[in-house]
């Protein structure tokens, strides 16, 4: 009996309608699985922790009837039961009303899942593996429903689930597991209950097979048996007789018509399953409806990846989100660094960020064996991010060092054009420029720019020193001529004019006759002149080169003003005696 669109709509509006609906369906080729969104919307409304009970097994083995018995439902009201050769259930179906139970004082919603049977017509073994693995990972209790006995194929089919158990469930030195395994219930339906118990049957079926000839197939079978020990603590065996000989009429029978021993064992099975139910834990946390659906989507994506599902691909998908979180943490730590920084500093930040990202991965990752590949992926991604930060650091370092270098170069060029050359000023600017470059230029580009900087400073220093003596000599010659003009025509101070002429003659004649131009610069007299010049031109308090023009204008104004005052005073002195002389020489009688 299908759910139907009306029933699905009713289930979507709430959990009050008792119906079933698919949550996972096969694709058109019946090779892969896809989500049934209509059914999942109802599950997403569950706010309490979820536990899932799944029944798996060969097709036509009575899985749907068994689920109806566990839910105390008739075939007309519960899961659809078919009696034809083709399988009735396609994909995975869920009963629409979760059974709410109390587990350790907490309310848990139990979902009962009906799975498509194995080995039915028109399907591949890969599809069956996906169904088995999906049920094994989703469930809290996995009922392995087998008719009569345990076949080698039934054990082999556990290989994928066991591999998942080893990868996801295995404990390492007592640490928490990624998510707890489903408790496996071997349910053997057989008509004879005498002789060996089902637990003995399971134990014997899982014993190693002697392989004295070294048969490769037997080795693989024994490896599966060895690995099943991982699920040993979580497995239980239980037997049930057939409910009735007329199996095609089971849906029409009441409990009174069924075999009394079956009814007794069925009720015992209900209690056993109820005692085994625990909420599904992922990373130590329970899952509500939305989280359960998200978890289901992750599993399905992993199982559908590639043509053949593998534990490696499953681990990769589960770890995908964790890798992104670890990479985000690493990137955030790296982004806190204000570039540019030195290579050692960037490496130190990288090491700290990488260590924190790895610790987060170790804490949250899925799997033990295949997680190594996920770890390598994380390491490769962090290396890519680190390389990008390294390139950005080089760019920012080059940009900053180029700016400081250009500033220093401009300052050195400006010093070459000083109107009043000063070695003290050059040395002060030179030292300040070099210190600021050393402090502010950081990062991988600093080494190359330091070499350029030293060459530029050496070149500027040599050029300045060479031009300094020539400029100073020319300034002194010009200064002597200016003093001649001032001494003769402005203040008319004879001694000043004579001193200026002596200085001019000394610079232009005496030095050319007795010294070479180069030897002059090494003469002690010249050093005295240079020291005097430096004292006048530059000091930390007064930079005469900056104030030269204002000072010259002010001195010129004072000289002109002084000259004008002097002329007026001389005119006054020349006029006053004439007036007094005429007054005294006058012999004219004074009249009143």
From TrEMBL:
GO terms for molecular function: GTP binding; GTPase activity. Residues 47-167 form the GB1/RHD3-type G domain. The chain crosses the membrane at residues 472-491, 498-515, 547-565. InterPro entries: G_GB1_RHD3_dom, Guanylate-bd/ATL_C, Guanylate-bd_C_sf, Guanylate-bd_N, P-loop_NTPase. Gene3D superfamilies: Guanylate-binding protein, C-terminal domain (1.20.1000.10), P-loop containing nucleotide triphosphate hydrolases (3.40.50.300). It comes from the Eukaryota. Keywords: GTP-binding, Hydrolase, Membrane, Nucleotide-binding, Transmembrane, Transmembrane helix. The keyword Aminoacyl-tRNA synthetase does not apply. Belongs to the TRAFAC class dynamin-like GTPase superfamily. GB1/RHD3 GTPase family. This is GB1/RHD3-type G domain-containing protein. It comes from Brachypodium distachyon (Purple false brome).
């Amino acid at each position: 009996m299908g759910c139907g669109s009306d029933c699905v709509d009713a289930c979507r509006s709430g959990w009050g309608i008792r119906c079933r609906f698919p949550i996972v369906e096969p694709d058109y080729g019946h090779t892969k699985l896809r989500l049934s969104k209509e059914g999942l919307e109802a599950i997403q409304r569950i706010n309490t922790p979820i536990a899932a009970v799944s029944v798996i097994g060969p097709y036509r083995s009575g899985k749907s009837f068994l689920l109806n018995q566990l839910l105390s439902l008739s075939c007309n009201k519960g899961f659809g039961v078919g009696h034809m050769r083709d399988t009735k259930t396609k994909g995975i179906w869920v009963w629409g009303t979760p059974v709410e139970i109390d587990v350790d004082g907490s309310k848990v919603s139990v979902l009962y899942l009906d799975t498509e049977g194995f080995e039915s017509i028109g399907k591949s073994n890969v599809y069956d593996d996906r169904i088995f693995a999906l049920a094994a990972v989703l469930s809290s209790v996995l009922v392995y429903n087998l008719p009569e006995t345990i076949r080698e194929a039934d054990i082999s089919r556990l290989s994928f689930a066991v591999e998942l158990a080893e990868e996801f469930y295995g404990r390492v030195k007592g640490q928490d597991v990624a998510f707890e395994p489903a408790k496996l219930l071997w349910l053997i339906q057989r008509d004879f209950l005498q002789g060996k118990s089902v637990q003995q049957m399971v134990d014997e079926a899982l014993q190693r097979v002697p392989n004295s000839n070294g048969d490769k197939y037997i080795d693989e079978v024994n490896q599966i048996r060895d690995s099943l020990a991982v699920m040993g603590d979580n497995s239980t065996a239980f037997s049930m007789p057939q409910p009735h000989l007329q199996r095609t009429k089971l849906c029409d029978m009441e409990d009174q018509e069924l075999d009394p021993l079956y009814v007794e064992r069925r009720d015992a099975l209900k209690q056993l399953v109820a005692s085994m139910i625990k909420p599904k834990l992922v990373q130590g946390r329970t899952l509500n409806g939305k989280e359960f659906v998200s978890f289901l989507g992750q599993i399905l994506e992993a199982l559908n990846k590639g043509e053949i599902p593998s534990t490696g691909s499953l681990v990769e998908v589960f770890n995908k989100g964790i890798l992104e979180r670890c990479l985000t943490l690493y990137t955030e730590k790296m982004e806190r660094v204000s570039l540019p920084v030195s290579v050692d500093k960037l490496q130190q930040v990288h090491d700290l960020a990488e260590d924190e990202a790895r610790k987060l991965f170790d804490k949250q990752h899925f799997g033990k064996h295949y997680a190594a590949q996920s770890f390598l992926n994380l390491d490769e991604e962090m290396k890519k991010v680190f390389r990008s930060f390294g390139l950005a650091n080089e760019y920012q370092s080059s940009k900053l060092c180029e700016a400081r270098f250009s500033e220093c170069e401009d300052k050195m060029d400006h010093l070459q054009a000083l109107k009043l050359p000063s070695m003290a000023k050059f040395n002060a600017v030179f030292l300040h420029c070099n210190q600021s470059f050393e402090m502010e230029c950081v990062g991988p580009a600093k080494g190359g720019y330091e070499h350029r900087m030293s060459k530029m400073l050496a070149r500027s220093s040599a050029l300045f020193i060479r031009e300094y003596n020539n400029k100073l000599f020319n300034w002194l010659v010009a200064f002597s001529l200016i003093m001649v003009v001032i001494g003769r025509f402005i203040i008319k101070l004879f001694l000043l004019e004579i001193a200026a002429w002596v200085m001019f003659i000394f610079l232009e004649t005496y030095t050319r006759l007795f010294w070479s131009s180069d030897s002059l610069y090494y003469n002690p007299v010249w050093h005295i002149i240079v020291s005097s010049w430096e004292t006048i031109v530059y000091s930390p308090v007064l930079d005469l080169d900056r104030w030269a023009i204002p000072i010259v204008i002010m001195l010129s104004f004072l000289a002109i003003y002084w000259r004008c005052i002097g002329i007026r005073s001389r005119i006054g002195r020349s006029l006053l005696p004439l007036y007094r002389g005429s007054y005294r020489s006058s012999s004219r009688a004074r009249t009143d």
